[in-house]
Amino acid sequence: MQAARGTSLSDDTDRPAVPSPPRRARLRLLLAGIFAALYATDVVSKVLAVEHLTGRPDVEVVGDLLVLHLVRNPGAAFSTGTEYTVVLSCVAIVATGVVLWLARRVGSVLWAVALGVLLAGIVGNLTDRLLRSPGPLRGHVIDMFMLPSWPVFNVADICINVAAGLILLQAFRGIRIDGTREGEDA
């Protein structure tokens, strides 16, 4: 057992608290795969929404519970900050860089999943802001899912919220991004 050689063990597995380079590489691949799958899902859903919902009435998917409703959103959540589209774009660019920087240290499966999901959400909405009308850094984000008493949202928004939940879970569990626990000596 590796604990006998002075390496601390995490509480839920028999693996070293600090992952080996091959394990860290696998975690980065997991992060990249999750990012790619969710980013593609977001892009495809937006392309389909624009293609099939433009100029059409709302489409009820599950009665009034889930409705497809096309919105071009220049702002943030709840369409707030519509006059700050360029600032939101710049924040998203910085956030993308931060997630990529943190990904170098990923040492836990749940952190790899959280960062992959978060990256997909950030880059999904950033893509709209960079490539959609009215122009680079000012593009409107495509939203299409509508629930009662809730703002219209998209797959990228779902990703950001799921990632926030996973990150909070890891924080409450005391698991650092490198896979070690709070209070452990690395």
UniProtKB/TrEMBL annotation:
Top-rank EC class of the record's enzyme: hydrolase
Alphabetical UniProt keywords: Aspartyl protease, Cell membrane, Hydrolase, Membrane, Protease, Transmembrane, Transmembrane helix
Transmembrane segments annotated in the record for this chain: 29-49, 84-102, 109-127, 147-169
Domain of life: Bacteria
Region (Disordered): 1-21
Subcellular location: Cell membrane
Membrane topology designation: Multi-pass membrane protein
Protein family (similarity comment): Belongs to the peptidase A8 family.
Protein name: Lipoprotein signal peptidase
Species annotation: Nocardioides deserti
Highest classification ranks of the organism: Bacteria, Bacillati, Actinomycetota, Actinomycetes, Propionibacteriales
Primary gene name: lspA
